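Dear colleague,

Following up on Tuesday's group meeting, I ran the structure prediction for the four-component complex that the binding team flagged. I've pasted the input sequences exactly as they went in, so you can double-check that nothing got truncated or mislabelled along the way. The structure tokens for the whole assembly follow below. Feel free to forward this to whoever is handling the docking comparison.

Inputs:
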Amino acid sequence: MDRRHFIKLTAITGTSAALTACGNPENQVIRFIPEDDLVPGVATWKPSICPLCSAGCGVIARVMEGDAEVFRKGQAGVIRMGLAKKLEGNPEDPISQGKLCARGQAAIQITYHPDRIGNPRKRSGERGSGQFTDITWDEAIKELTGKLNALTAGNDQASLAFLTKPRRGRRLELIADLLQRYGARPPVTSELFSDEVLRRANQLTFGEHQLPTFDLANARYVISFGADFLGTWHSVVLQSVAFGRMKQGRPKFVHVDARLSQTAANADEFVACKPGTEGLLALAIAGEYAVDAAAEKTGVGRATIERLTKEFTTHGPAVAIIGGAPLAHTNGLFQAWAVNRLNLAAKTVGNPGGLTFAASAPVVATRSLKELLDVPPRVLLLDDVNPVFTSPPAWKVAEALRRVPFIVSFGSFIDETSALADLIVPDHSFLESWVDAAPETGTAPRSKYGPVMRPLYDTRSTPDVLLQVAAGLAKPIPGLPGTFEEYVNAERPEENRVQHVPPGAKPRELANTRLTIAWTDPQFDGDTSQYPFHFMPYASQMLFDGSLAHLPWLQETPDPMTSAMWCSWVEINEQKARELAIEQGDIIEVTSTQGSVRAPAFLNPGLAPDAVAMPVGQGHTNFTRYATNRGVNPISILAPVTIPETGTLAWSATRVKIAKVGDKQTYDSLILFGGATRERPDWTHGRGDEH
Amino acid sequence: MSAIYGLYSDPNVAQVAVNNLRAAGVPDADITVISSEPFEHFEFGHRDARTAMPWIATAAGAAGMVATYYLLGLSQHAWPLVTSGMPVAPLWTNLIIIFEMTMLSAIAATVITLIVTAFIGERGTLYDPEVSDGYILVGVEKTGDAGKLESALKIDGGRVKSI
Amino acid sequence: MPFRWGMAIDLNACTGCEACVTACHAENNIPTVSAEQASRGRAMHWIRVERYYEGNFPDVRVKFRPVLCQQCDNAPCEAVCPTYAAHHNEDGLNAQVYNRCIGTRYCANACPYNVRFFNFFNAEWPKPLHLQLNPDVSVREVGVMEKCTFCVQRIKAAKTAARAEHRALVDGALQPACAQACPTSAIVFGDLNDPDSRVARLARSPRGTRLLEDLGAEPKITYLQKQPWHEPDAY
Amino acid sequence: MNRTLTKPFTDDMVRPVMSTTVWFWAIVLATGTVVASGAAAWGYQLWYGIGLSGKRWPGFWALYLTNFVFWIGISHAGTLISAILRLVNAGWRRPVTRVAEVITVFALMIGAMFPIIHLGRPWLAFWLFPYPSAREIWPNFRSPLAWDFFAINTYLTGSVLFLLLPMIPDFALVRDRSTGWRRKFYGALSFGWRGTTRQWNRLESAMQIMAIAILPVAVSVHTIVSFDFSMANVPMWHSTIFGPYFVAGAIFSGIAALILAMAALRKALHLEKYLLPLHFENLGKLLLLMSILWGYFVFNERLTVWYGNEHHEMAVFWATQRGQYAPLYWTMVICNFIIPIALLSNPYTRNIIGCVVASFGVVIGMWLERFLIIVPSLAHKALPYSWGTYTPTPVELMIMAATFAAMILLYALFAKFVPIIAIWEMKAGDFAHAPRQGLAAADPHRIDAAAPASPEAAS
């Protein structure tokens, strides 16, 4: 705590004491009685779970005493209480193993965010105007209960929809249970970078509707097809820890992609492959596809394929990973299936150095966003999701939501979606509430932890609010737990916080080994002649899918590959840009059939010349002071191409054209931390100064 | 009458006046010559030229050098903080400061000597504002035989005044 | 024997994920300076991951290299400071005394690694972000230089605790925030005076190099060079 | 023998002190406004922080330090040149010395302000002074900034005294010609000066000793300023050539500034009779020599870097030669080398106008040189990821403009209160154009009467 502030607080305390003595109960800042038994200056550590992605890393929070201005029963005051100061990986957690990624480090800023919603609010202006008035919790719960009672009265319980993130754990289980018992349909999940197609392929090949876990630590040959497994894909910390162990030996890591991602940057060999054809390369290496044909389709040289095949078969244990862009094509299922074939050919499935599956945790049935959009509900409950931001414009999510008569948001922030809400009933932050997780990785633990600190604001845990509403319904739902805490601890005693689950039975190829998915060419939106560039949006290393753009630490942490901060950018191949007379920082207009965005150019030596890449994350129109009106959102020019089998967005299936619309002298919008991109800049061309 | 003096526009005449005074038995130390410019090319301008000023400056410079050497060392060893792996009192860098302080001491000593010898040490009061128009004043403040002095000063090209 | 804190960074293992950067911000009360200031080159990252491209697509490689204060034995930054704000402490660290800094910024010029950062303005933590501040680390005023301290507050705490309990510091128990966060454990921290510590052993590695070694600053961070993969039977 | 007195000359010199023209007030008002704006800009910067300047990571030194080096360089016009000319007894120096010495004093004062403006916490600038400030810790005498303090302090003290001492007889002249407050004011300033031979002798001795002492100090000052850069292991800073290179550059820019000041005074105070084309021509020759010397140093510096081909230095080299800073670099070469040599090597253009044009170029060129030493090097240190750039902000430019205005303002005020040409030195010089009849050689009592007349007296 900074000293100035401390002094100010002390002054306030003194004043309030004097006021109390004068018998003036209004307008005073009350010093509440300390709630915790903490020794000043001594840190204690409390466990919790990082909520930012589905990896479910166990964290420990450093808690120290501090003076916080808090709200209690509608009254503001100062309280000396335990405050979380820093998050570290929990050494006892099998996922994080004491480590934490950049995003996880910044999760603590959610709790202390200056724009966090601190109390229930009710819409007072036009929908989407952002005008809300504060209400009490009793009013909020009464309002919500009334809406649900109205649905029940009209025998229209199916018109209640719950939209959330796909997070496995007791929280979603409770919500699904409540919905079912109320009579509503299962919860709807929404995620931009969905791996549903990979789960579908694993279902077909191994009978496991899950993401695989990779034993990288024991692998000696890793071939990754576009999977950014060290940056943003799947369980990043777990995979990175294993990668670090693997690197203690002398493994080979090959990355196949059209763009040098942060993971690809760590590869011993980078193989450039035409987008959407990675599966053919995998099949060819597996020996199930003609090398010549694969070479022609993928653009990878014959000699390279043969060498990779030889290396893959001789330098085991080998494992193949697919994720990210290669799955986001219309033929995503083929791609995933083909990589499964390659893993089977490596004979490492279920063995050390190969892939395994976690013991099946109860899977909650969910519905896709598409279903929700097709049949708009009468009452929609939003649980910290932002589909307005993460959906292509053609899906018309905002328009669909505007047709929903009543929307309730549980999120802690106003974003593009929750701005449309009629009622905001803010959740605690993860540090203030009971948390639990059941990640779908490795020795998937079921972990649960109590609150790290007391709430700063007049917020309430969403499951508790739902339980309270359910209890107050005109037609009450019987047999409910009193609180989420009870529900979490009902399964196993409270002391047993981390439950290590042994891996599931060794996955085997299903009996129908003959199952074959036919190759189809990936379909792209946009004509090649008119839209010559393949558009590659990717999950930003820091801002992920944009849901973390409100955290200042992540905004200011440089992107690993570009060193950009606080901005959007368009990546163009360095040599291609020279041909097009585009310089670093020039403003580029990227146009697809759906629209166009403008952002400064970053000349990337590691991008295919016929591709243009953009990070997802910026471009929020309404998402706290740190993210609003910053950069552009590449999703806003994505075509609504979906993967037929899953209905999820094929976000890598859009083609674009580019045009220079301004130079860097006029628009200084590319904010880079680093200078030169090369260690030995080439001065012979008078270049090298990259700014 | 406390003083008698002549005003001359020509330094040659002034020189003659000085010579006359000497011939009249006035000791050199009692002859006052005042001018608005130094006459370094004339004999009368060279009376009092001997000065120990260069030696004083040299001595002060040497004293400053030694003092700075020890003061630097003392202050550096008073709280011996290590920086850049250098010695606590490195001569290489201290030499720079020692040099500057040597020069400053010499300059200060010179100016102090000047003030003491040329201003504080000046006891005479004889002056005539006409000096600023270019006249050279030659006079004697301790008047013994006034007539003898006056005849010595009264030469062609000069005026004699007494106060 | 006094400590001599050092670090080894395995470039084989560093994936450039920037977890260390954010961890450092969280531990050391490093302010975020806003987009406008960041565009004017005022962003502060005590540790940064340098990224260098080599070659052109498709034969393109990238080198990551985390750069933080190298805690040089002959630190060029120290001698040039006129107020001893930068000096060498008894543990061999380049201490930076914020209260004594008057902001000549000379140390940053002298530092060949450019790891020193300057408070161009008073930092702001809009309420209640200030509640996150680490009480063990002072908040810096405008006009003051700052840089990586090897998390000196953690070193102090560990030493105090060890002394109170009459025990020696165990190698590896004490880690700066960057090493603690690093998912691949590429960063190893410890006492170079203890020949059996992990960091001392890594410092002797044939793969070990020091950054800009020829400048003679004697940095205490050893970089274990990245090894290209080759066919095992090539030997 | 009838000899015209020096009265008319003295009157000429004292007149500007006695009467005030409208022009004086116009200049004071104009420059005063700019100085006030600069002060306001500094206040603004003090209040909000040094971040209002354009400095950034890693270019932590930029415009303020450019101006520091520039002004310290300009300060070498006066005392150094004046001392050299005094020691070699160059007669033509006499109307020039005071004009030059004033430049030194004011330029040093302005220059010495910049390190303080530049500080992150200027309110603690006194921690640079040699006293045990905080917790009985003395300043770090290993820091070149501590050396700067001593060097500038010695040079400023020496220069102020060097300027003040010869002013005392002239104050006495003004005292004798004035009444009222002026008589009291100048009477006090003249410390009871009468002009006895003893006083003259002591004054001359003191000036002689000071001239000897101040010469190495002046050289050391700019060498130490160059140490601020060459002590740091920064590409193209860490060079042994920097000491003499900086000193030569300082004298170079100093002479240029002196020519500009003389030309301005000549016009403004109607000193055409005393500041003659001869003076400009002589100084022009000196400027030409320094220009060639400067070119020689630059060639040396560039050649060794280019031949050494060390990649850290080559980055800076190319950035200035053909990169981002090339336009500034080539402007500097034209201003510092091409224009002065073209104008000053030709006797027909080595006139007052030619000298003024060349000097103007040199002042601009030398400012750019300081900028190009500081900024590109810091922007291109050893690790290319940390490369940066620099653009000045309005606050910096305002403060910089204010210092130029302050120089003019201080000069105007000085010329208002003090005779700008050393009257007694002019008289003593037997200078041909001093209004006195009868050649010195004809004086039978001169002790050097047998010696031939000095050439400048003959011209």
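The first strand of chain C starts at residue 5 and ends at 10.

Cheers,
M.
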